[in-house]
């Protein structure tokens, strides 16, 4: 009986080193393929003369266009008139900037080019 238990213990000690190696395959992440934001809009400078530096016009099917006034200035790569972008936004309860009456102030996040 002791011989049988000793034989099993030795077998278990020697065989774990003989495991099958699995090949690791990297898959393309969806982060690089999919846009970051949930909303789609177009950057516009149409209200610069009245005091709005940059606005983003959001077009949704079946609804009126929404004009957003970004709280923070957009990065140079996104602050191009006519550029279409993806982004997330959160409407803010604050006063519009001086001279800027067209639009709703909003916090824009997760901005990426279309």
For the residues shown, what is the average pLDDT? 82
When the domains are counted, the total is: 1
Report the uncertain regions.
Answer: none
Number-wise, the strands total 5
**Helicity, as a percent range:** 10-25%
Write down the secondary-structure element order.
HHEEEEE
The amount of beta strand, in percent, is 25-35%
Approximate shape: rod-shaped
Describe the largest sheet: 5 strands, mixed, barrel
Rounded radius of gyration (Å)? 29 Å
The end-to-end distance, rounded to whole angstroms, is 73 Å
The main sheet orders its strands as 1-2-3-5-4
How many distinct helices?
2
Class of secondary structure makeup: alpha+beta
Overview of the structural elements:
Strand 2 and strand 3 (66-70) form a beta hairpin. This protein has a five-stranded mixed beta barrel with strand order 1-2-3-5-4. It is rod-shaped, with a radius of gyration of 29 Å. Helices cover 15% and strands 29% of the residues. It is built from two helices and five strands; from the N terminus they run H-H-E-E-E-E-E. It has one domain. The chain starts with a helix and ends with a strand. The model has no long low-confidence stretch (mean pLDDT 82). By secondary structure, the chain is α+β, with helices and mostly antiparallel strands. The longest helix has 13 residues, at 2-14.
């Amino acid at each position: 009986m002791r011989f049988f238990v000793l034989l099993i213990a030795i077998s278990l000690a020697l065989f774990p080193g003989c495991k099958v190696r699995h090949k690791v395959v990297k898959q393309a992440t969806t982060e690089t393929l999919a846009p970051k934001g949930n909303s789609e809009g177009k950057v516009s400078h149409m209200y610069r003369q009245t005091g709005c530096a940059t606005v983003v016009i959001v077009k949704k099917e079946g609804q009126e266009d929404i004009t957003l006034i970004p709280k923070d200035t957009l990065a140079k790569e996104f602050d191009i008139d006519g550029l279409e972008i993806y982004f997330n936004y959160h409407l803010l309860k604050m006063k519009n900037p001086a001279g800027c009456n067209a639009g709703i102030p909003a916090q824009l996040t997760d901005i990426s080019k279309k």
